[in-house]
Amino acid sequence: MQSSPALFAHRRHGHLPAQQLDAGFPLRGQPIHLQLDQAAIADIATESSMYPKLPYAPERDLTGVSYMVRSPMVLVVPASSRFQTLQDYVAAAKKPATVSYASVGAGSSNRLPLVLPHIQGGKLRALAVISSKRDAHLPAVPAIAETYKGFEVYSWVGMIAPARTPEAILNRLAADMSATLRDPKVAQRLADGGFEVVAGGRQEMNARTGSRASRSAGPA
């Protein structure tokens, strides 16, 4: 395989506006370098439903390389809150103007790695992990599926590339990324940070891109 320079656009962000992805991660024209980007659920899945006029089409302009890791979302309250359980919160929420809530941003996700240090530090109380089973980091916190059967929502991170990237390169990258993520030391480091290694391939990542996320990817 002929070698070429690679540009890995690793942006430390929670949610990039669609226009910034288009400007900072060229999607059209002739490829000069191999361009890769780390993408989260907010970047390429939820934006399609939030912004009616995106400057790009995820299904047309992007292609998946690796569905890397996932982590469950968590419902948390301040440690001083009167709510002790999920049931307490739901009961109060059914009464008008009795609770307030916040998120990490429209279209973003309050995933476990973001709040875990604050839970462990005693600043937040976790009421439920939004998954089908309890998380190893918070074994005493119930999974929401224990109350609401079949309900789970995961945040995830993957790798994408422009759709015009040659198939041979995409396949090689997918294989190498899967092997790296399955390395025991790498997997343990990610697990310590609150992530579950998926190491899915191109098909799994493509199922979570744009409108395909709601059609075929399911809750994860």
Tell me the strand percentage band: 15-25%
End-to-end distance: 34 Å
Q: What percent of the residues sit in helical stretches (DSSP H or I)? A: 25-40%
Major sheet: size, sense and barrel closure? Answer: 6 strands, mixed
Determine the mean pLDDT.
80
- The dominant shape is globular
Count of alpha/pi helices: 9
If you compute it from the alpha carbons, what radius of gyration comes out, rounded to the nearest whole angstrom?
19 Å
> Based on helices, strands and strand pairing, what is the structural class?
alpha+beta
Low-confidence stretches: 10-20, 214-220
- H/E element order: EHEHHEHHEEHHEHH
Give a count of the beta strands, DSSP E runs of length 2 or more. 6
Your description of this structure?
It is a single chain. With 220 residues, the protein is of the alpha+beta class. 33% of the residues lie in helices and 22% in strands. Strands 1, 2, 3, 4, 5 and 6 form a six-stranded mixed beta sheet that branches. Strand 1 (6-9), helix 1 (18-24) and strand 2 form a beta-alpha-beta unit. The longest helix is centred in the C-terminal third of the chain and has 15 residues, at 167-181. It is globular, with a radius of gyration of 19 Å.
In a few lines, what is going on in this structure?
This protein has 220 residues and is α+β, with helices and mostly antiparallel strands. Helix content is 33%, strand content 22%.
Keywords:
220 residues, alpha+beta, six-stranded mixed sheet, 9 helices, disordered C terminus
Topology:
Elements: E1 6-9, H1 18-24, E2 34-40, H2 41-50, H3 58-61, E3 62-78, H4 86-93, H5 112-120, E4 124-130, E5 154-162, H6 167-181, H7 184-192, E6 196-200, H8 202-206, H9 212-216
